[in-house]
Each structure stands twice: as structure tokens, then as C-alpha cells.
Amino acid sequence: DLFHTCKFDGLILRWGPRTIPRVFTNHTSQYLEMWEKPVGRLKLRALIPPCNAVIAPSRELAEKSRFLRVRPADIHYIPNGVDIGAYASTLGRNEIRERFGIELQAPVILSARRFDPKNGLIYFARAIPQILQECPLAQILFVGEGDPQEKQRVFDCIRSAGVASHVKFAGAVPNREMPAYYAAADISVIPSLREATSLTCLESMASGTPVVATAVGGLPE
């Protein structure tokens, strides 16, 4: 919860030694959510004290950090990155497909996202029938956990559309296993409604897996 995180970090920034430079790393979509509301902006300004510098991993976050009490010249856009070497292998492609009973030649569409309303997975779920009209052999693979109610909403949407036989839920997957999931996929879908910066997007690109994403936050970058 960003409110409690900022409250805790704000206390550290306020009470820490004044001789030590204070840097705020602004990297969450919750900041964007709060920023969109006048009351939220007041909370952010109250919780985050003046800093020597701000680091933001997307241009949108960098721009919206200007609201904080810091000089524009001290706001630095530093994009996130991933270890390309860890995602360059295609090892595990067949293993993941066999694990979920997916034909080795079937097109696989991966969505490695937490079940959270801001991640827009319900809209991807609603699009599955249309996807299957265009590509009847496609298989959809959801990776991740999150809000149980949001996951149930996605599941109910899929079931009511009659496409459950084309959809697999992997649940939570350790990060060390994710390269195999990207290798197993033909497309990686990121349907976010709000995004600071997406490691899933970077990991997909590092794996050579084409990305289809909404043009929000740091995703276009």
C-alpha cells in the first residue's frame, strides 16, 4: 500500500541525518493512481518530504514527480532493465507446454500479470472469444496470482464465454522459472490500464517474445 509505504519512508526522510542526501525512488502505479485525484496529490505532498533527488523509471512518473518539492533538474528518468542473458534461452519451451497439456505446435498467448483491476486482465479475458475466432488453435496461459476476487471475475468471464478449454492458469511461478514460460509463448499480452514500468514487458522482449500491450505509462518506452 503506497500510503503506508510513503508514510514510513517519509518518516525516514524527515528524521534521517540532514548531511545524507535523500533520494526518493518513484516506481509504482499506486503513485499514479493517487496523483490522479486532488486529495491523493495532497496526501502525496504531505507524505513525501523535500528530497535532494527523485528517480523515476518512466517518463510519465518523472513528469508527475514535478508535483513533489524537488527541483526539476533533480528528477532523473532511469528506465528499469533485466539481465538479457537470463532470458535468451529457449530451454523449457516443450516442457511448459507438456505440463499444461498444450500441443507443441499450438500458438500460446501468455499474460504474466498479477490479478489486479489496474492490470486490465478482465479486458483480455473478454477478448479471448474473438482471438479464437481468428486463431481457433490458440491457447491462453495466465501466470500470476493476486486479488482473489479479480481472479474469480476473470475466471467467470472465461467460463461464461465457453472458452475455458483454451485457457490455463499457472498460478504463482518463481522468477527463476519464468524464462521457460516466455520461451513457451508466441505472444506476451500486457493489457494494463495503468503502468509505472513493466518488468514483464522487458523480460518478454529479452526472450524475443513479441509484446502486445496497452499504450499506457512506461509501456510505449
Polypeptide structure, described:
Helix content is 39%, strand content 14%. The chain is an alpha/beta fold and 221 residues long. The strands form two sheets. The protein has a five-stranded parallel β-sheet, sandwiched between helices. A three-stranded parallel β-sheet has the order 1-2-3. α9 links the parallel β7 and β8. The protein is elongated. The mean pLDDT is 89.
A few lines on this structure:
With 221 residues, the protein is an alpha/beta fold. It has 9 helices and 8 strands.
Keyphrases for this structure?
221 residues, alpha/beta, five-stranded parallel β-sheet, three-stranded parallel β-sheet, 39% helix
List the helices and strands and how they pair.
Layout: H1 2-15, E1 23-25, H2 29-35, H3 38-47, E2 53-56, H4 59-64, E3 75-77, H5 93-99, E4 108-112, H6 121-134, E5 139-143, H7 148-160, E6 167-169, H8 178-184, E7 187-190, H9 199-206, E8 211-213
Parallel strand pairs: 1-2, 2-3, 4-5, 4-7, 5-6, 7-8
Helix pairs in contact: 2-3, 5-8, 6-7
